[in-house]
Each structure stands twice: as C-alpha cells, then as structure tokens.
Design goal:
372 residues, mainly alpha, three-stranded antiparallel beta sheet, 17 helices, DUF7779, ADP binding, P-loop_NTPase
Length: 372
C-alpha cells in the first residue's frame, strides 16, 4: 500500500470513529473501513488519480485494492478518477475530454464576471465572441481557461482587449508561461521545489517549520513566516497552487508540476530537489540518538511519508532517464538517504513492506555508491 493510501485510510478511520488516534497497521485499518462499508448504506468512496504511477507494482496494488472495495457496491458507490485509460477497460467508465464550446465560454464568462458587468448587450456579445476566439488555441482545456480568467481579472482587462493583445498565443503552456513571468525568483523557486513533493497535500505546517531556520542556506527562500506567507499568496493568486483552508494544505496540479520540471535546467532541477529534501528533513520528526524505535514519532512521520515517497520516485526516475541524477555524483547529500532509512524502517514497522523495500533499497544503494 502506498504512503498516501495508508494515510487516507488512517485519517478516515479516525474521522469515522473506528479507532483512536494511535497509529495502527494500515492493512488492519483498511479492513475496518471495509467492515464499516458493509454495515453502512448510501456511501461514496472516491479514489482520486488512481493508478497514475509509472511503477507497475503500485498500479497492480491499487487495482487490487479497488476490486476489494468494489465488491461492497451493492449499497454504496465508488468513484474513480484517473489519467490511466487502461482503467476504463478494466472497470468501465467515461472518458472526459475537453469542454465543449458552450460550456467553456460559460466558464470563462462566469469567472471573469462579464455577466455581472455594467455592459450593454452589444458589449456582452463582443466579450462572448472574444471568448470563443480565445478558445480556438486552448483546446477548451479547463486549466487553460482558469489560467486565462485569472490573468484577465488580475490585469483588470476585458476579454476583447486580452484577445487583441495575445491573439494566437493562448495555448496552455503560453498561459502558464505568462503566469510564471509574474513570479519573482523566490516564488518560482518555491513552486519548482513543490514539483518534487506529493502534489495533493503540501502541509503549511511543514513549510512554516522551515521558515526562520537561518543556519540552513537551502531554506533562505522562506527565511521568515512573513516571507513565506507572501510567496504562498503569490502562487495562489496566479492559480498555480490551490489552498484548502480547513486542512491547511496546498495542492499543485500534476500538469503544473510537469511544466515546472520541463522548463528547469538540470542545475535548477537538482537545486529544487535538494530544497525539497531539506524541507522534508527539517520537518521530519527525528528520534533521540540511541533509541531504535519511538512510537510517539509515528503520527508526524506519517504526515510527511508521501513526500518521502515522491522524492524517492523522482530520484529513481532520474537514475533511469537520459539526464544526470537529481543528486550529482560529485555531491554528497546525507539528508536524503537518512530520510529514506528512517521512513523505510517506519514502513516496515507498520506493515508497508513493499514501500519499505523501495526506500531501504534506494537508501542502501545511495550509501554504497557514495562511500565508494
């Protein structure tokens, strides 16, 4: 079971009153969840972004897990979202394509509040026609529409003026490039770092714990809580990240992460990866020297385990790719393998044996390579 699934099941079981806050084997928690579903009617279980990993072992694991819960669908429902078209053939479903023109125009008009502006009918018709022309190059992609609407609202301009200024330049990458151009160096570095973390839940407490750590040169971009809050607001205002106030978490769309990584040089990718490692390491609860296992640290470590897993996956892919590794061969970074070891042994204690093997295997290989 992946770190993210384990954390989700653990959180659900607490919220449903199936257990207290003490950490428990995630496979037992999944069993409690299934038993609760068997006894409860009219529930909805959502597997968001299921089976989008490149790791075939994780793909099969997620599919097996979905099959287990699917058997209880006689009195509940399961909604699966995925970028993997193979799941449609296996489980059935609907492939969502681009918005049609009518829905796309309505979304842009609503987000830019044209329908609430004090325009006469002729001006409204011109705005709607400009919206249609804009979409000729965005393929009616919702992310592109949202990005364009944010630029228009931020610049306090009309759709007709936007189209006249940027005609034939409204591809999704162009929209993002315009948003990136508005970022200062620190905001861009923070977003690039997020491209290597778990995109679904980047905890504010993790980032705030790193602000004000003056002795860490890698963390200078968030050197104070005030500076971090300013950078966070900048990214939110440019629709490059979203904010869940209730959970106090940021979220980055996966296509935005991919775009960040694609536009970085190898040096920038290594720097951003190193920053991600430094932030996770700074927030990772460390045990007292001489103590092999401290259960009190588990809740905090579970919160950040999905980030360790993400860093592990990105580093592994960099070893298999055409570019150089994310940690240069002539550099020594002991923080990364130390996190892998601590997270790996924690996964072993909790019964996440596949993930433990991946983390410990990579950590051990890193140590052996560095010491040669």
């Amino acid at each position: 079971m992946s770190a993210k699934l384990a954390a989700s099941f653990s959180r659900f079981s607490v919220e449903l009153g199936l257990r207290d806050n003490e950490p428990e084997n995630p496979h037992s928690v999944a069993k409690y969840m299934r038993e609760w579903l068997e006894k409860t009617k009219n529930w909805l279980l959502v597997f968001d972004n299921a089976a989008s990993d490149e790791n075939e072992k994780l793909l099969q694991e997620k599919e097996d897990l979905i099959k287990i819960f699917r058997s209880e669908c006689n009195h509940g429902s399961i909604l699966i979202t995925s970028r993997d078209e193979k799941l449609i053939r296996k489980f059935g479903g609907v492939e969502l394509r681009q918005l049609n023109e009518e829905d796309a125009v309505e979304l842009l008009i609503t987000r830019t509040k044209v329908d609430q502006a004090n325009f006469n009918q002729s001006s409204i018709d011109e705005e709607i026609e400009a919206a249609r022309r804009i979409f000729e190059n965005t393929d009616y992609n919702p992310l592109g529409i949202i990005g364009i609407s944010d630029i228009i609202r931020r610049d306090s301009t009309r759709l007709t003026d936007f189209y006249a200024s940027y005609s034939n330049q409204h591809s999704l990458n162009t929209v993002w490039r315009r948003q990136f151009e508005k970022l200062n160096k620190d905001a861009l570095n923070l977003l690039n770092m997020m491209a290597y973390l778990d995109p679904d839940r980047i905890q504010l407490k993790m980032l705030r714990q790193c602000s004000g750590v003056s002795h860490k040169k890698d963390l200078e971009i968030i050197s104070s809580p005030r500076k971090f809050d300013h950078l966070r607001s900048t990214l939110i205002q440019n629709s490059l990240v979203s904010y869940n106030e209730e959970l106090q978490e940021l979220r980055v769309n996966r296509p935005v992460q991919a775009y960040c990584r694609s536009r970085m040089t190898l040096q920038d990718r290594c720097k951003s990866f190193k920053l991600g490692v430094a932030i996770v390491k700074q927030s990772w609860p460390s045990q007292t020297r001489g103590i092999m296992y401290d259960p009190a640290l588990l809740p905090g470590r579970i919160d950040y385990l999905s980030h360790v897993e993400s860093l592990c996956q990105h580093y592994t892919r960099s070893l298999d790719g055409l570019d150089s590794p994310l940690i240069p061969e002539d550099k020594v970074n002991w923080e990364f393998p130390s996190i892998l070891y601590e997270a790996g042994w924690m996964c072993y204690e909790k019964g996440l044996f596949d993930l433990a093997q991946d983390l410990l295997g990579l950590g051990g290989g890193f140590f052996r390579f560095t010491l040669q």
